[in-house]
Amino acid sequence: VSRCCFLLRQGEFVGDIMIYSPQATVWSEQVLLGSRDRIMPYGDLAKTLVANGYDFDPVNDDVLQNRARVENGRVKVRELDYRFLILPNTTAVPLATMEFIRRFALGGGVVIALDELPRESVGLKDHEKYEAGVSEMVSELFGPDGKEKIFPGGGRSYYFPDYKIPDYETTRKTSKIGPQPSDPTPPLTAPQRALLEALHAHLAPDFALAGNEQSNGLTFLHRRVGPDDIYFVTNLQPEASEKAVTFRVSGKTPERWDPMTGQIHPVLVYQARPEGIEIPIHLGPFGSTLFVFGSTEPSLHLSETNLDDLRELNDHEVKGIASRNGEVRVTVMENGRNREAQTTVSGLPEPLPVTGAWQMSLEGYRFEKVEKQVSQLQSWTEDPRTQHFSGTGRYVLDFQVPARYVSEEMETVLD
C-alpha cells in the first residue's frame, strides 16, 4: 500500500474528460431547502467512461470561470489537460460559464451535451438578459439530434438528446462474510455507443482492451511524472483476468513495478501499435500492479509468444516456461525488425492430483485450537465452528512424487 501511495501521489493526474457538475441545474430546480436531496445527476456516466478506457475529473463553475484556460483545443488547469467537456443533463448554466464553454469549442475543443441542452441562466438579477445570452450561445454551439457541428477553429460539439441519464440511487447494502457477487458491466445502449464513437473520433482510449471491448473490472489510474507515465492497473473481479491492454503511450519502454515485493522488471513481451503499447496482462482475482513507461529507447523484446512466462531474453536465446506439450512460438522485435523462432515441447506429464488425508490445525488469538483430518480442502467459513476464524491454518500431507515430475528443466508448482 505504501509503494502504491508513494507512486500515485507523484506528478499529475492524466484524464481526458471534464464532466461539468450540473450543480446550477439541481439548485435551480430544487430551490426550497430540504425539499429533496441535491444529488448531481451523473448516473452511470462515470462508470461508462472508465469501463471504456477514458478517465475524467468533475469540474464546477468556479474552476471554469477562474482557474481554467483554453490552449490548443484543450482545457488547462495548472498542468492538467483535458480534451473533452461533457454537460450531463444540464439545463441551467451561469452566463460566465457558458462564455467559457463557447470559447473552448471555438478554440478547437470538443463539447458534448447529454439528454438536455442549457436553456437558462441562474439568479434573478438581469435574468432576462443573461438567459438571452445563454440561449444565443447554445444555438450557436449545438446542432440538432446529435449531429456533429464543426467550427472554424477545429472545435466540435455534439448533442445526444436520447442519452437518458438514470437517477443515481443510493442503497444501503448489508455486509456479509464470504464471496461477494460481481456483476458484469451492463451492455452499452445505443446512446452510450454514440457517445463513445464521438470520443474515439478525436482521441483513442487511454486504456483499451482488444477491440475496444468494455471492461468488467480491469481498470486503471494514470499519472504523468515529467516525461514518464505511471499506470496503476487493478482487477476488481473475483476471477483472474487475462487481457491484452493498449496503453496510449508511444516511444517509451515499459517496466512492471511489483508493489508486493518492490521488484522492478522490464516488460519483455509487448507490441508497439499506432494506438499505443499493447501488453498482455495476467492478474489474479483482485490483483493489482504498476506499469511505468520510461523515456528510454525501446529495447529488445518479444512482440508475440505463447510461452506462459518469460525468464530470459538476449541476442542469442529466449528462455521461458511452457505449461503444455506442443509447439512454442516467439517473435523477437529488434531494431524495428521481427525475427521468429519455434520449438516443440514434449514429455511434460499431466497434472498430479495430491490426494490423501490432510492433518489440519487452526490456531488463532483467543480462539480454541481446532485439529482434524480432511480429505477435501474447502473454505473454513463452511464449518460453523470456524465460520469466523482468524489466525493461522496449517495443513500437512505426505505424498509420493513420481520420478517423471523431477527434472532440471522442469519447475513443479503446488497449486
In short:
The protein is of the alpha+beta class and 415 residues long.
Descriptive report:
The protein has 415 residues and is an alpha+beta fold. It has helices spanning 2-8, 23-29, 45-51, 61-66, 95-106, 127-141, 190-202, and strands at 12-13, 17-20, 56-59, 69-71, 74-77, 80-82, 84-88, 110-114, 149-150, 156-160, 207-209, 218-225, 228-235, 241-247, 253-257, 264-266, 271-273, 276-283, 288-294, 301-305, 309-313, 318-321, 326-334, 337-345, 358-364, 367-374, 392-396. Helix 5 (95-106) packs parallel to helix 6. The longest helix is centred in the N-terminal third of the chain and has 15 residues, at 127-141. The protein is globular.
Strand order of the largest sheet: 1-12-13-19-15-16
Structural class: alpha+beta
Sheet with the most strands, sense and barrel status? 6 strands, antiparallel
What distance separates the N and C termini? 26 Å
The count of DSSP E runs of length 2 or more, i.e. the number of strands, is 27
Rg over C-alpha atoms, rounded to the nearest angstrom: 27 Å
Number of helices: 7
The whole-number mean of residue pLDDT values reads 90
Helix coverage percent of residues? 10-25%
Identify the overall geometry. globular
Which regions are unreliable across 5 or more consecutive residues at pLDDT < 50?
none
Residue share in β-strands:
25-35%
